[in-house]
Design the sequence.
């Protein structure tokens, strides 16, 4: 468990630095839709490999559509959120998105408590709000480029606020709904993942062809993009284990802790400087972990 969670923290934290390493003349040269399709396809292949290795006896078992169909909605919610992230950038700047997207911690916790009937104590709610505070602090200037102005400009339209609200709601709903399916079905995780990622590949392929512009499917790809595809696929599989055997709250803590890896890589690779807000964020995360998982 510990190794999986540490690996997931490392993958979450390295995602943004890896995207920066992919840039050519300050621009990302590949289609994000192509990467999403390849990530889903890689997860599907890994799931099939796990099924053939550890649960081969299930290949001849008849599975009802009642087991398969719920994963279509889960994949649809994830696909909708992936596309919403792209369209939201038209109505707000990236810094505002980074700050406001931390609200999905609250929406996920609320839906987790409501739909999975998991009562959270005031101590645990305080821990989750500290995670929000940590994310906001880090997004507002936990890292600083010595050659750029330190003042942060935030801009968002009314439509942007509406979209970020919908994004946080769908983000929480997709995570909690998927956790509910994984836990209520008496099926091996490898088989459940096979259903989920089959629909993921299908829907994201449709999304790719729907939004496809000029250029080939693999245009702009490099070895760094391959690292992103494999790492994100591996992280998706780890998160399915977390949701099956732990909870979405654990996932939220993993994402928050990835700030540490992100900062370390950004300082090492891009010579960015840590600010006071970074240490505020780290303090909030440490206190949140103590409040949520510490001995009462």
Sequence:
């Amino acid at each position: 468990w510990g190794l999986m969670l540490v690996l997931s923290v490392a993958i979450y934290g390295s995602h943004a630095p890896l995207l920066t390493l992919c840039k050519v003349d300050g621009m990302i040269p590949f289609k994000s839709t192509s990467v999403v399709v390849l990530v889903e396809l890689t997860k599907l292949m890994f799931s099939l490999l796990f099924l053939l290795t550890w649960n081969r006896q299930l290949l001849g078992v008849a599975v009802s559509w009642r087991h398969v169909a719920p994963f279509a909605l889960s994949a649809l919610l994830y696909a909708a959120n992936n596309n919403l992230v792209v369209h939201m950038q038209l109505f707000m700047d990236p810094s505002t998105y980074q700050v406001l997207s931390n609200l999905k911690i609250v929406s996920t916790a609320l839906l987790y408590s409501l739909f999975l009937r998991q009562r959270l104590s005031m101590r645990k709610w305080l821990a989750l709000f500290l995670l929000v505070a940590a994310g906001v602090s880090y997004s507002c200037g936990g890292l600083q480029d010595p050659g750029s102005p330190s003042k942060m400009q935030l801009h968002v339209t009314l439509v942007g606020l509406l979209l970020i609200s919908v994004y946080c709601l769908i983000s929480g709903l997709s995570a909690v709904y998927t956790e509910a399916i994984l836990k209520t079905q008496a099926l091996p995780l490898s088989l459940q993942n096979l259903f989920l990622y089959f629909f993921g590949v299908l829907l994201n392929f449709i999304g790719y062809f729907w939004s496809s512009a000029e250029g080939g499917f693999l245009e702009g790809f490099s070895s760094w993009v391959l690292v992103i595809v494999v790492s994100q696929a591996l992280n998706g599989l780890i998160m399915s284990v977390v949701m099956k055997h732990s909870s979405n709250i654990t996932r939220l803590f993993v994402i928050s802790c990835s700030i540490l890896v992100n900062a370390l890589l950004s300082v090492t690779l891009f010579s960015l400087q840590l600010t006071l807000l970074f240490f505020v964020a780290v303090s909030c995360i440490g206190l949140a972990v103590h409040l949520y998982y510490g001995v009462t």
